[in-house]
Structures are given as C-alpha cells and as structure tokens.
Amino acid sequence: MIFKKILLKLSGESLMGEQGYGIDSERLNDYAIQIKEISDLGIKIGVVIGGGNIFRGLSGASKGFDRVKGDSMGMLATVINGLALSSALDSLQCKNRLMTSIRMEPIGEFYTKTIAMEALNNGEIVIISGGTSNPYFTTDTASALRGIEIEADVFLKGTRVDGVYTSDPEKDKNAKKYEHITFSEMYSKGLKIMDLTATAMCMENNLPVYVFDMDTKGNLKKVIFGEKIGTLVNN
User: Fold this and answer.
1) How far is residue 103's CA from residue 93's CA, in Å, rounded to a whole number?
2) pLDDT at 211
3) Residue 147 contacts by C-beta under 8 Å, 6 or more apart in sequence?
4) What percent of the chain has pLDDT over 90?
5) Is residue 53 within 8 Å of 23, Cβ to Cβ?
6) DSSP codes joined into one string, the chain
7) What is the arithmetic mean of pLDDT over 140-155?
8) Which CATH fold would you assign to the domain 5-234?
9) Mean pLDDT of 92-105
C-alpha cells in the first residue's frame, strides 16, 4: 500500500448514475463497497461529496438564484449525499461518522479537526459534508482544505474519467492522457481539473492529487496499491 490516509472526493454528478438526477442506489452501493474494501485494509478515510446531482449554486445563480443562497442550497445537497453514503456504509456494517461544517445536529456532528482525527484513528470513515460552510467555494476546495487538515497522504479525486487529458476526452477523440503532471503545468495549460483555489491550496501545502475513474469497480483499491490507472498531480 502506498497510501495510508486519504481524502476521497466523490462527484455528486456521478451519484446520479444513468438516471440524470438524484441518487442512483446501485452507484451509491458500488461506492460504499469500494470504500469498505480499503477500510478493511486499515486505510484511514475522509470523504467529501459534491452536491451537483441535487443542486449547484453557480448554475442556480445563472437561473436567477441569489449566489449566496444558491451556494447554501448546494452545501445542503452535500449533506443529503453524505447521509446517503453513511446509510449505505451502515448497511455494510462499516463504521462511519457523518460530520457537517454547518451546525445541524442531530443530522450530523459538527466538524472539527480534533474529532475527525479521533474518529479516523478509531477506524471510522469520516464523511465531511457542508463544503467549507462558506459561499463562493467549491467542494474541490473543501476537499483540499479537509485533506490538509486531516493530514492525508493524498487527495483522491474520483471522477467518471480515468485521469487528466490534454482536452476533454468525452468531446475530443484525439485527447491524450497524462500519467503525471505538475500543478504549475496544469495551470499553464489551462486544464480544469479543479478550481484555482483548490489547486493553490494543494500546491502550497504539498498535497498530491490523484485523478481516477471511481465508477469502475475495484479502482479505488488499485489506486491504494499504487497501480497507475489515473493521473498524479503534484509539485
């Protein structure tokens, strides 16, 4: 195993599966099984989930929503997804704890680094929902922030694409995949792997990012064991 403590970022859009909205139970259970598989190996796992399958603040703003209220709706969407993942892990008898960056007990425990670290050290999977609790920040930035706080070895960005490409592989058949790229190269080439705030945080705090396809069963375990199935981004 090359990683012992990870921050796993899951895409809200991926949770939709084939249905185009909401939460696909089959995809959710696939994620839970993959997470349990590496938890059983003793890996310490923090999880952040996006909310784009339910509501995205930025796209809401373009439709007339106030941006701050729209982002607040997006943050609540991540709590709904966190609850769903927690429930799926419960069904597998996998110890987990849902934490929220906004106070909303008893739905979830208020996030602090101290409590999160204690839970991780006790073998619990810690699901951190609510984004950064502030508007104008993405869940990528929240993932970078929580990854740095919990002292993760790596920020694993689980997507529906198997890495970083020269252009969008879903639109460009000639797009070439990178096995490795630096944060500086990513920025200079204009590759939109994650937003600039998240990129800067990872770069300044030396937190490597690994982009991989989470939708293929077994891939999470392959990443943990060092199989080169995605793209490594670091300094």
Assistant:
1) 26
2) 97
3) 7, 46, 154, 155, 202, 207
4) 83
5) yes
6) ---SEEEEEE-TGGGGTTSSSS--HHHHHHHHHHHHHHHTTT-EEEEEE--TTT--HHHHHTTT--HHHHHHHHHHHHHHHHHHHHHHHHHTT--EEEEESS--TTTSEEP-HHHHHHHHHTT-EEEEESTTSSTT--HHHHHHHHHHHTT-SEEEEEESSSSEESS-TTT-TT--EESEEEHHHHHHTT--SS-HHHHHHHHHTT--EEEEETTSTTHHHHHHTT---SEEEE-
7) 98
8) Carbamate kinase (3.40.1160)
9) 97
- Give yes or no for a contact between 57 and 142, defined as CB atoms under 8 angstroms apart: no
Residue boundaries of the structural domains of the chain: 5-234
CA gap 12, 10 in Å, rounded: 6
Q: Which residues pair with 47 in a beta bridge?
A: 8, 127
**pLDDT computed for residue 141 by the predictor:** 97
pLDDT digits (tens, 9 = 90+) for 159-184: 988 999 998 888 888 999 999 999 99
Give the range among 24-28, 155-159, 165-169, 205-209 with minimum mean pLDDT: 165-169
Q: Rounded distance, CA 162 to CA 178, Å?
A: 10
- Assess whether pLDDT exceeds 70 at residue 23: yes
**Cβ atoms of residues 165 and 193 within 8 Å:** no
pLDDT over 70 (residue 58): no
